[in-house]
Structures are given as C-alpha cells and as structure tokens.
Design a protein that fits this description.
Blueprint (H helix, E strand, L loop, with lengths): L6 E5 L5 H16 L5 H9 L2 H9 L4 E5 L2 E9 L2 E7 L8 H15 L4 E7 L3 H9 L3 E7 L8 E8 L2
Amino acid sequence: MTSAPNTLIRRARPEDAAACRAILRDTFESTWRPELTAEAARAFQSEDRPAAYVGERGLLFLVAEIGGEVVGFVDWNGDFVNALHVLASHARTGVGGRLMDRAEAEIAAAGFPAARLETDTFNLRSQAFYAGRGYLEAGRYPDEEWNSGLTTVLLVKVLG
C-alpha cells in the first residue's frame, strides 16, 4: 500500500462538492492550462466544467481527507477510471496512490479483470505514476475533449 499517513479514504458526501470543484480547478491550472489553446481554456472556465462534472458524478467519488480537508478524489465507472485529481499542494505525498489502491480494489471486486484510464502525452508525470503502478500503454488517439491538438494515451492494468 502507498504511504500517506493520516489520510482517510471515504465516499464523497454532498458537503464535499465545493472542495472537489476546487481540486478540479487547481489541477486545471497546474496541469492542463499550460497545454491548452486560449480558446479551450476559456471554454473550460465559461462552461464551469468542474461544477457540471461534480454535479453529475460527485457523490460517486472516493475522496481523500487529511485533517478534515478533502485533498483529492478518484472517480470510475465499470473498469474505466474517469479521473484522479489531487491538490498540487498534496502531490507526491501518496494520496493519489491511496486513492488508486482503493479504486483498483473495487474495480477488481466488481469482477473486472483490468482497469483502464486515459492521460495525455504531455503529462509525463501522470504517465510515470501509472507506469509505476503497472499500467501499460494500449493505444494513442487524438484528444477531442480539449480541441487543442493533444494526443490521448490509453493505459491498461491487469488486476489481481
């Protein structure tokens, strides 16, 4: 198990919505914004994508809480991990690993033989994190979500 002492991993509650939206905005600024076209960045902000996403799926998240503060979350559907986000101030502390440990265990317990997720080619830190967890590249294709000329990498990990 990954280290992250004093981290509580639990199901999200309605009162976690604001923290989850803030985490999405934080990771947008620290990871995605430098890679996007100005138009794509404006669209993210004007459409308030964090609010829409948290409103739709937020109560399905597992969150990481430290000292009463929600500092990260993971979301998956079936065998596909939709999102793993950790506040930049808590990056590389083991929080992401703890969240993925639980997500992978629950995916396996649901009977799926593998977990799948996507990242982008520019996100070398994410690719290294997942490679260290045993994920292997299974494909590359244009990233259509951001309309910024990015390339998505599909990663797969056999569970069990």
